[in-house]
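To assess whether the prediction recovers the assembly geometry, we first specified each molecular entity separately, as shown.
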Amino acid sequence: MSNFNVVLLEQQEAELRDLVFATKDVEGAAYVLMRECKIASDPWDRRSRTKFVAREVVPIPAEHRVSSSAQHVTWDTRGFVALLQRCQREDLVLGIVHCHPHGPRDFSEQDDLNEAELLRTACNRNGPGTKLVSILFYDDGGIRARVWQFPEHKADCKSVAVFGERFRVHLPGGLSPVSEVFARQVLAFGDSLMSQLKALRVGIIGGGGTGSATAMLAARAGVGQIVIVDDDIVEPTNLNRLHGATQSDADVRNGKADVAAREIARMGLGVRVVPLKGWANAPHVRDALKSCDVIFCCTDDNSGRIFLNRLAYFYFIPVIDMGLAMAVAKPPAKGMAEISARVTTILLPETCLLCRDAVDTDLAREEDLRRRNPTEYDRQKREAYVRGEGNPNPAVVTFTTEVACMAVNELINRIVGYRKREMGSEHRRRFLFCEDRATSASPRSSCPICASKFYWGMADSKPFLDLVG
Ligand SMILES: [Zn+2]
Ligand SMILES: [Zn+2]
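The predicted structure of the complete assembly is given in tokenized form:
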């Protein structure tokens, strides 16, 4: 059985909506060029899945329009054939987008006939097996999509996800019934939040102080699918802040990801939760990450952050990155010099994490070296070419958990928009000064990730994320 999803950015959706609804009460059409994200095995259902990631919106020139009314739109297919040529050259999938200004809320028989014909043209030009995505916009904001691969067969997409200032997953079935467990949360934010959270596939990278808290909070809030990625085991010195971990987990050296997953399963909320042992950038974790709609980055690891930063731009997977800085004052000063939290949502077209100076690239290089070649790392450390790990940083559960709360609240706000004042893509809390503020940054002109659109929506590429070595 086919398993398809479509992913759009909010600004692409707005652009498409403007194009297809350009003339009041008349059907309009446009094209969208998409790249594929192929998942061999989804961590939750173990099935293969393909996400179509929108790369470029292409208007249909007015002179190509043949006729249109409230019930139909037809256009000259010269542009279509030219785009097919480009699809073949650049490994793109062609999407056609149209609207039904007054319903029906489904593809019509005419759509079936037209699209089967377009697919025949596509297969004749680009070879059998060529795919065609068809996206339908409703006037109430709804979206549906389906995929044609054979003239006799079309498959409905399981969801169309739109990410931007707001996150919205369009599901063909509408709202799903909400368990009474969430009755008190529904009082605050309604059924629709629950349906959205239940549909979401969420990755939690890091199962430590912030990660274990994020995992528990996301599950309690109603997220339906969670994958937790961590390579570490529970140590006695983690027990002050790991939610759900016990002394016996430390005794038998249980994995942090396994412990978090076990605790979520014990909640009995019906969350599908999968633990994965490994680093974020390990090849066996790739499919799980690509399967996610949203990822929480709860790691201290700089190279992991750089990796997820790329992933967000390639695959349009928003990454909610969190950081906590706790530093003790240098003598003779006493007390804490800093306690501050940062939550950054890495999301197009916003500035990336590297341009926000949220990552230490020197440390990232050392972390990579330590994992890839421990002998060489030790040699460089002896010769003082690398800084090495310093003393452990202070960590206090109330603060690690508060950062996790800020991050999960960010997700809830992206879905329902409860804030009266938007915080933008980055939010800092300075605990020592009772201060909350939004911070912004501009891309550096030389940034390959966010200053240029080259990688935006590239999805699958060889090598993965265009990373060499
Ligand atoms: Zn139609
Ligand atoms: Zn950047």
